[in-house]
Each structure stands twice: as structure tokens, then as C-alpha cells.
Amino acid sequence: MTPAQLKTHSSQLKIQNSQLKTQNSFMDLQLTNKVIIVTGGSSGIGEAISRMVAEEGGIPVIASRNAARNEALVAELVANGSTAHCITGQLSDAAFCEKIVAETFASFGRIDGVVNNAGKNDGVGLESGNPAAFMESLNENLSHYYNLVHFALPHLKATNGSIVNISSKVAMTGQGNTSAYAAAKGAQLALTREWAAELLPFGIRANAILPAEVMTPLYESWIQTFENPAEKLAAITSKIPLEKRMTTAEEIASATLFLLSARASHITGQWWVIDGGYVHLDRALT
Fold this sequence. Notes:
By secondary structure, this protein is an alpha/beta fold. The protein is about 50% helix and about 10% strand.
């Protein structure tokens, strides 16, 4: 994809995002002063979620390993009048997950929600991978989903908090040459249902969102691996039934915030596919 094509695509997404904000501005999600931990919260879908938490008056706590991005986003949000915090470290380390929870509670005295989002499609396939790479990928993409919620659970009980796991369409459709990522994403869906069942007595809701084609920095890097990125992107978007376009990160964030909020007070154990019909509708529809 050329810089000009990417700029045009980004401009179109910005217009769509602006229209969505106008359409959704009437609904108060009742997230003012709610403290929400967002892993991978300074880039891509995670960044969109962190920004929207702040826009709704909540307090995003951004947890990822990129200190520069974390600090830049927090500085921007604070300069705009929001409260935000970041914690930098390696999520695959259980001790870091425990630190996130301890520091968040020490800073704000409560935890109202956890958004498990961080991870990447690292291409560890069946033939191209190996057992060691498979287990390493599971640790990178899956373990912190469990660890963070495990340590946050006492605080979520106190607030009747909410959990949203960001999974992927790959968990339902497969993709090829990405066994470890698919396994991790499928496990995230299973954990969502399991936690929804286990946490019923505490009024804690657990749901999952499955994005499909969303233009994030990681997705853009993947597109650039093809000989003709623009042609590849056009082929993908042509198969997305609704409006023949990719889902925006802000559309994923909107669904995430709704599930975190009291507006979704009787929704738990659900898997929401936010993809313009890409997974479940016949892609030949015109």
C-alpha cells in the first residue's frame, strides 16, 4: 500500500469514526470515574479503547511493554482533562500482572473493569512452528488473560466489575499457519464462558469481542508483507458484506465500552463478532 493510499484509507476511517461519535453521543454509559485496566492499551484497538474510556469520563490504566507509547498517550489524555495512568512491563510475566493490579488499586482505590486485549498473530503454524514456539506463543497471547483477572478478582468483586476479552475471528474461522494464535484465541472464548459461569454469584460479567479485519499498526505491517499490499487490502475489503470496508478500532471500542457499562447489565458469557458481517454472512452477498 502506498503512503497516499494509506492516507486516503485513514481519512475515510476518520470520517466514519466522527459519524459514529455523533450517533452515539446521546447515550451515557455511566462510566464516570470507573477504573478500567486495558492491556495493550496504547496502540491499535487497545488505544481506541483507552481513549474512549477517557472520553466517557472513566480512568484508563494502560498496561503494555512500550513505555514511550504508554507515556505519550497518558500525557495527551491528561492534557485534555482526563485522568489516566500507565504501567510498563511484560504481560507474559505473572508478577507484572500482579503489579498492575496492586499499582492500580494503590493509585485509585478501586478496579471496575479489565479489558484483556494485548497479543499478536505471530505465525506459529503446525508445519512451520515447533513445540517450544507453540508454548511460547500461548504464554504471550493467553496466560496474561488469566493472570490479570485472577489478581484483579477481589477488587472486581467489590465493584461488581466487568471483564471483556478481545479475541479474534481466527478462533471461529481458522486462518492457516497460525496454530498457536488460533489456540490462544479459542481458549479466550472458552475462558469467557467459564468465567461468566463462575462469577455469577458476584455479579461480575464476562464477555468477549471478536474483531475480524481492523486496520491497526500490526495489521498494516501484515498487509505490507504482500507483494501488492493495495491489491491484497482491496481483495479483503471486497468480501466484507457491510459497506465493503474494514471495521474501525473505534467501532470495536464502542462495543467494548458498552459491555463494560451498566447499560449491558444483563449481558454475560457472550461472544460478539464485530466485523460488518464478514464471518457469519455469505460473502457473495451484493
